[in-house]
Amino acid sequence: MTGRRALLSGWTLVLLLALTIQTSVNVEALSTRAIPKHFYIALGDSYSSGEGLAPFLAGSGSCDRSPEAYPNIVARRLRTVTLRFLACSGATIEQISGQVASARPSDLRHAALTTVTAGGNDLPFSGLISSCIGAVASITSPTIKYLGGMSGAALCAGTIHGAANLLGAGVNPTTGALSNPVTALTLPLSQPSAIQTRLIALYLQILHREGALRHRVTGPRLIVVPYPTLLGPAGSDACLLSPAPLPNEGSTTTSTPTGSLYPAFANASSVALGQLNSYLQSETSVVVKSLRSEGYLEVSLAPIEPGFVPLDCSTGTSPSINGLHLNNTAMRALSGFLHPTAAGQALLAASVVAAWRSATH
User: Which residues pair with 39 in a beta bridge?
Assistant: First the structure.
């Protein structure tokens, strides 16, 4: 009996040990499954994709996603997230909504951070730039020569008015100033502009797809990254866009080239473009504030980085944003113009990280 009891005791110990090992394995497996992988979903247009900062990532195609774009910098700084880089150069608000729809539901549910920059291509910025650009002999040149077949005074005025209407503001044809000042933007949004309506729908789509709940303070974080200020104050008669003269190639650049000509905006154009830029910044901010006042506390606005330097109208240069260098194919050269440099993208990334840490801690 003593030997049998000893044998049973031995088997009991073996079974208990096996059960203990199996239990610990199961607990470890359960705990691994219980901790989801956290994702960073980067949505938006060329300001998010890193347009102008080639070489672009393999597989990004015409979306021109750059390793120097702010989403990549943010992901490297946060370390604990896996980047899902969906931003695409040229994307409108509707197309950014398509980026949200294309994202895997599990990635969205486990998003620790989502960023988006949107609205510029609805105005559109690229159309405003190409239709308003001209050339001057110097910063003090009294007249601007529009680029033949590419821009003109009437074309510029039409695109500016179209953009202002989308923002719910008119333009004074004499001064170039918006007739409805930015200070007129108030809460609640009783009559949102077309751009505001589109932004509200986009932000709500993101929040709902991520499972955000009203009045909840924890959970997915949507950080809206506004466009930086692009142009400094205009010069006496024009805003110089590059320190390099245009190539003298006859009708492909200007209708009447004479000597060295520099790309520029006319003074009234640069005033209007600067105010459209400011108005879009303000409308973006008002939309975020409106959603937060409605209880969507998981959306916040990244601050506009004070170190971001707009293009200097007297020199056509900036450390934060690309000036314009036209070549034989002028329209192609516009792709990176007025887009952040690598240093500018780093400043946008710092703004996102600061907003995320403020929201989560």
Answer: 82, 111
Is 4 part of any domain?
A: no
Tell whether 10 is covered by a domain.
no
Residue 335 pLDDT > 70: no
Q: How many structural domains is the chain composed of?
A: 1
Residue 336 belongs to domain spanning:
37-360
CATH number of the domain at 314, please.
Answer: 3.40.50.1110
Q: Give CA separation, 152 vs 178, 269, 328, 333, in Å.
A: 20, 11, 19, 18
| Rounded Cα–Cα distance for residues 267 and 253 (Å) | 20
Which pLDDT score, from 0 to 100, does residue 226 have? 96
| Residue 117, beta-bridge partner list | 44
DSSP structure string for 85-133: E---TT--HHHHHHHHHHS-HHHHHTEEEEEEE-STTTTTHHHHHHHHE
Q: What are the backbone angles phi and psi of residue 311, rounded to the nearest 5°?
A: -65, 130
Q: How far is the C-alpha of 324 from the C-alpha of 341, rounded, in Å?
A: 12
Q: Which residues contact 147 (CB under 8 A, 6 or more apart)?
A: 133, 134, 135, 253, 254, 255, 330
State residue 30's pLDDT score.
37
Residue 194 domain-assigned? Answer: yes
For residue 93, pLDDT over 50 is answered with yes
Residue of 229, 316, 219 whose CA lies nearest to 265: 316
Distance between CA atoms of 229 and 218, rounded to whole angstroms? 31
Which of the pair, 342 or 4, is modelled with greater confidence? 342
What number is the average pLDDT over the span 15-40? 48
Summarised one tens digit per residue, pLDDT across range 171-223 is 776 666 776 655 555 656 667 889 999 999 999 999 999 988 887 877 678 99
Please give the structure tokens belonging to residue 116: 């988006």
Is position 11 within any domain?
A: no
Instruction: State the CB neighbour count (10 A cutoff) for residue 214.
Output: 11
Q: Say what percent of the chain tops pLDDT 90.
A: 50
